[in-house]
Amino acid sequence: MSKRFIQSINYMRGLCMLGVIGIHVGSVALLSPSPNLGLVAVLEILSRFSVPAFFFLSAFGMFLSQPLNQPFVYKEYLKRRLRTVLIPYLSWSLFYMLYVSVIGHNFTLFHPGQFIRTLWYGLAMYHIYFLVILLWFYFLMPLWRPLLRWMDKKPALSFTILFFANMIFNFYSSYIWNFHFASPILQDAFNYRLNYVVLHYLFIFLFGAFTAEHFSAVCDWLINHGLLVNLFQGLSTAGMLAAYYGIMYYKGYDALSAVFTIHQLSPVGMVYTLSTMLFCLYWWQCRPVPRAVDKVFSLLGDYSYPIYLVHPLFLALLTHLASHFHIFLRSLYIMAIYCIVTLLAIAFSIVVTKATLPRWLRICIKGK
């Protein structure tokens, strides 16, 4: 498939970015003694597709630019990808480490052992671990290509098996395994497994690669099965909400425990992520897109990467201000924080993209 810009994929980047911000603002909403369960459902449950969806989109972009039927030079590929991800990861991690240290008047993060641990597991800020997993996917690209080529022989069977195998692995990793090691290094490796073990997101990553390799065929299937796609999305959404409210009603969980249980790696969360990817492709690739939707989500998609990198800073500043002025964060304030954080992150991204910056600084901020 020829290299080209696919607008629907860009829209999905924008939507996922809104979802990621929603998850992080939702963490603030959960701090309330009596959180609004409906608002938490939107911010923390219905937005859960957005993290694995970014692996879908990343794989799509990788295999669109480096399809299986073209030569693959690992060294050149890795050089480009490391500049796009590794350099911004390091620069933003250092920035957030410095920010947290200054705010907390504690610079132990820069002690050699803690410094290495923070960078290795992506602990500088709660969102940046995503780039660590993405880097591991990049490093292992020579494995994904032959695996996808092999799965492509019988895609329906192989992806079905992979989906359920991935579901079982995620279930055990999320709910069953609870190992304790005498070695602090091994204990950290186990505790932070979600920050680097790519197996948690293997299905959605390879499905994104498959979609890029067979984009026209996938779109034809979606066009012919629009009713099924919409029904699938409705049922999976209902499943997410039923699981969230159900464990609070029947199990007595509080909202925080429910959010930690019904997440993107839960069985229903994996189904919901898959359905949302198909649903978005159907409505944004196979159907006419209103002009207003095109403008908004094109903007968000174009600037999604710097928005992702910077938005926790604005969220932290706003919550610190609210705390300083003793503002009780009711639902209205939570929604206002969401809107302000999003707008500030967009404004920052536009400025750093359009400003004339030294090349090294531009690469540090947004990888290009």
TrEMBL record:
Native organism is Megasphaera hexanoica
Q: Name one Pfam family in it.
A: Acyl_transf_3
Predominant location: membrane
Q: PANTHER family, per this entry?
A: O-ACETYLTRANSFERASE WECH
> Lineage of the native species?
Bacteria, Bacillati, Bacillota, Negativicutes, Veillonellales
Q: Which residue ranges does the record assign to the Acyltransferase domain?
A: 7-350
Protein localization: Cell membrane
Molecular function terms from GO = acyltransferase activity
**What protein name is recorded for this chain?**
Acyltransferase
**Which keywords label this protein?**
Acyltransferase, Cell membrane, Membrane, Transferase, Transmembrane, Transmembrane helix
